Amino acid sequence: MPYDFDLLRELTETSGVPGYEDRVRDVVRREFENEVDRVESDGMGNVVGTIEGSGDRSVVVAAHMDEIGFMVRHVTDDGYLRLDALGGWDARVLKAQRVTVHTENGDIDGLIGSPPPHTMDEKDLEGKDEVADVHVDLGLDGDEVEERVAVGDLVTTRQTTELLGEHVTGKALDNRVSVFALVEAARRIDDPEATVHLAATVQEEVGLRGAKALGVDIDADLAIGLDTTVANDVPGFEEADHVTALGDGAGIKLKDSSAIANPKVHRHFRALAEEHDIDYQMEVLPAGGTDTAGLQFAGGATPAGAISFPTRYLHTVTESVHAEDVAAAIDLLVAALEAETDGADYTL
């Protein structure tokens, strides 16, 4: 691969739910340390690696560190855990999944229970799954669970990141693949004209909160969001509803439900992709928002665009991206940052 797959695997397998991104933040700081001019963090937990440019312009690129997960809301007398969702889950995918409970005294492995179909009637089988109905079984008796687990402890799914043919599959590719792109860009950018702020943000999955705060603190001339996007190029969807397709290149966002990309910005990205022979596809996402919106107007009227990683099975424990799309998106990001000059003008 033309990039550091071991680091991508580490980032995706590391746990970090909204508001508790500590472990991921540590990896980002470690990787930024020798690649940028300075590393800073704020009271919310955003981490920004800055590469000083030779000119007067600045660019901020945001990729969120948090993954969807859970918080323990109740421990039963029998030792089962009831959960509250952190981020948008489809509860149908949770049955029989292995999880990790993150306590103050260490991690505990567990699983989400799923009753056998032999004991379920037709009403049970057709009922709507809800996160509130999920229970985590730790294989321990109630007294030991009470000693080791507290309300407020965090829970993440337990999954390895693997190559599956030409695809990379695992948990938290949304949005660790974009965090990985920040690091790869930091490694590749050499003497930019614009100062580049590479921001690993927090709490995107619960309302773009980290990016909204960061947009106030960093007054950039251009904001770029990095995130995954829907690839419904699988059975059961009409071609018009695919949004993107794996293997067709980096996504250049036109719109999602939270932001409309500045026309000059997305046209510039498209021209760069064609100039550098980078595969790309235009993205119109009917639902779902990204940090692009969090940055776009938090500190005023900032021109904004986004580069996306087409992803199948979003918000499940087995998300999938195409290895070559990852390379294309990183190449496009680097090209955009190196092309940013004092003469750039995205006003409309």
TrEMBL record:
Molecular function via GO: aminopeptidase activity; metal ion binding
Keywords from the UniProt entry: Aminopeptidase, Hydrolase, Metal-binding, Protease
Pfam families reported in the protein's UniProt record: Peptidase_M42
Record carries keyword Thylakoid: no
Cofactor binding, per record: Binds 2 divalent metal cations per subunit.
Similarity field: Belongs to the peptidase M42 family.
Name this protein carries in UniProt: M42 family metallopeptidase
Species per Swiss-Prot/TrEMBL record: Halosegnis marinus
